[in-house]
């Protein structure tokens, strides 16, 4: 199934320059793994970087820098790739680099309950201001009504959700800025697993998240 | 393409640079590696100096970058990127690691869950040479302000807010000009690839 909702040019350029912080970079990189079209856009932005390097000013080099480099390289033992690559065709729900951040594929994750069958797994993303986490939403369940202080990015990895008049499926990314108050609903076919990155912790409108409400009308 | 073992004059072309990098990956070719170092190290040093104050820091990251180029050269595919672009991505990732102390999440084309290109419209539809030429031509066609904004966004670890402050522009203007400059590039590429990108 082809991807219909892509990451925006702003995010692609910020990922290419290296400006984008780690949590948002994680969602962009994971989308890239699933989306050849965005990889082509990334290749273009990175070509700008390569072109700018070619035309960069040349700093003065000290004596013997290359020799020092080769001594360093010769000191370091060659690292042999001892970890065998997983077989092609093995069905992972989480593509790299997300699998490394989660500590494995979805089968073995240590989910934490949020109530109502909704689970999450916060991911460590360094010093990022933004937060990244995996969300597990039972088929047909809704995520509590929430607004957010910054940009919220959600990448679907399994199942689907419906929000703001559109369906989002594997590989699709929803961008919602701070003005959006929304209530995504998981599709009825299977649990929805997604990667969510928020600029700031979500502020829920109700004190008790209304996570338990089954959604039967779609 | 030149024999990679024979260094050429002061300004090696893209084919020569790519051949050197391939030769490092295939044969641990130290002569080719030195030629790449002579070409890229002074440029990368000025790149790193923009992110770190102390000269020693830039030198350290420069060494780390070339050590990474040495160990990863076998992964370089000249059909996917020019040598300059591939080396830029290595340098960018090293400096994120060194100056910001964050990991850099990257997709892995060897991962079973990776979705490869299928047919026209994929990233291989335009050749590396075409893409490089389009970018060079498009950069030359940008206004002074647009190209300054683009250069700052690649060469300084500045948020859009900081770039806006520095240029005395509203942040929304900076964002829209980056988008415009990049959209300009994409439009040229789309024209070249028959509208498939």
How is this structure best described in words?
The complex is a heterodimer of chains A (218) and B (197). By secondary structure, chain A is of the alpha+beta class. Helix content of chain A is 26%, strand content 22%. Chain A has a six-stranded antiparallel sheet with strand order 1-2-3-10-5-8, covered by helices on one side. Chain A has a three-stranded antiparallel sheet with strand order 7-6-9, with no helix packed on it. A two-stranded antiparallel ribbon of chain A has the order 4-11. In chain A, helix 1 crosses helix 3 (36-54) and helix 2 (22-34) packs across helix 3 (36-54). The model of chain A is unreliable at 201-218 (pLDDT under 50). Chain B is an all-alpha fold and 197 residues long. Chain B has helices at residues 14-27, 30-49, 55-72, 83-100, 128-141, 144-155, 160-167, 171-192. In chain B, helix 2 runs antiparallel to helix 3 (55-72). The longest helix of chain B has 22 residues, at 171-192. The radius of gyration of chain B is 18 Å and the shape is globular. At the A-B interface, helix 1, helix 2, helix 3 and helix 4 of A face helix 2, helix 3, helix 4, helix 5 and helix 6 of B.
